[in-house]
Each structure stands twice: as structure tokens, then as C-alpha cells.
Amino acid sequence: MSAAVNAPHPFPPVAAGTRIGHVHLKVADLDRAIAFYSGVLGFEVQQHYGTQAAFLSAGGYHHHLGLNTWESRGGSPPPAGTTGLFHTAILYPTRRDLADALRRLVAAGVPLTGASDHGVSEALYLDDPDRNGVELYWDRPESEWPRNPDGSLAMMTERLDLQNLLSELER
Questions:
Q1: Domain boundary residue among 30, 56, 75?
Q2: To the nearest whole percent, how much of the chain has pLDDT over 70?
Q3: Which end is more exposed in the chain, N or C (fewer Cβ atoms within 10 Å of the end residue's Cβ)?
Q4: What positions does the domain VOC occupy (predicted)?
Q5: CA-CA distance, 125 to 135, in Å (whole number)?
Q6: Distance of CA 127 to CAs 18, 57, 118, 141, Å?
């Protein structure tokens, strides 16, 4: 299979406007997951699908997050060293909105697993109650992205100053 991955592709890249539309997570306890994604992060529940699933969003969209217990009620997270989702990345529109997310996490006592400045973005990393990885981030304007002399991206991973991020809420 690796040979096929490295082979030239006969088709052009996917359209530039293509996006990943939503994430659907298997959770062990639906109420606990809703308490985290709605109660802590602030997503709004748009619909319950019986007692086994819920759909949540920002701004009234039909759903950005689907949570279900169809195959996972009472289950445990996959063990370390197995394949699966590394994290769900939630993009905030502004740095101030990311600061608000950090304030919510601190108030709820949710620990971070990391916080990074990638040059192109700033990101907070954490686990949800089912130990699904979650990245909360905002993108800097493309004009501010770090570039190498040849114009290619020069992304990095440096420590994010959390106090500086929280200061956005005072402006």
C-alpha cells in the first residue's frame, strides 16, 4: 500500500473549499458527554435521538458534534498503542473565543494535556471524559503565518503563554 501512497495521482487535489463537516463520537455515558461538550465547552444541544444519541452545535447549525452510545454504552476507552482518532480539533473564530474556552476549562477543573503555539495557530489540548483527545484552537490570519525563505510553511511547536491568552478577555 505504501507504494500506492507515494505514486503520482492522476487527479487534481480535492477542492480548496472542502471541509470536514462534523465529528461523531462513541461515548460510554451520554449525559456525561453532554455535560462536558455543552456544560463546559458551551455547545448547544440541537436534538436528542432517544436516550442513545445527541447532536450539538455552535450557532444553531444542525450539528458539529454527534455523541452516541450505540456501540459503546458503559464501554472503556481503547488502550494506548492502538489505532483510532488522535483528537478532534475544534476551530474557534478568534483568539478571544479561544481564551473564553480556556476560562471555561479552568472553571470546570478540566486539566490540559498541552498548550502550543504552532505559528499558524494557538492550541489547547485536553481529553474529554471518554479520553477522546480534543484540540481547541484558533488560526492566525494567513498573512501572519511563518514562512521559510522558499515560501513554504514554517510551523513549529512552542509553549503557549496561557496567561497572555487569558488577557484577551480583559481587552
A1: 75
A2: 96
A3: N
A4: 19-139
A5: 5
A6: 27, 19, 20, 27
d(CA 51, CA 36) in angstroms, rounded, equals: 17
CATH of the domain at 56: 3.10.180.10
Query: What is the pLDDT confidence band of residue 20, given thresholds at 50, 70 and 90?
Result: confident
Q: Among 64, 60, 75, which Cα is nearest to 37's?
A: 64
Within a domain: 4: no
Q: Please tell me the distance from the alpha carbon of residue 48 to that of residue 113, in angstroms, as a whole number.
A: 30
Dihedral (Cα; 156, 159, 163, 169), 10-degree rounding: 20
* In contact, 30 and 71? CB cutoff 8 Å: no
Same-domain pairing of 132 and 159: yes
Look up the pTM and report it.
Answer: 0.90
Would you state the pLDDT for residue 155? 97
Q: How far is residue 14 from each of residues 120, 139, 148, 151, measured CA to CA in Å?
A: 22, 21, 25, 22
Residue 26, φ and ψ in degrees, nearest 5: -85, 130
Distance CA 84, CA 163 (A): 33
As a whole number of angstroms, the distance between CA 80 and CA 78 comes to: 7
How many domains would you assign to the chain? Answer: 2
Domain that holds residue 94: 86-171
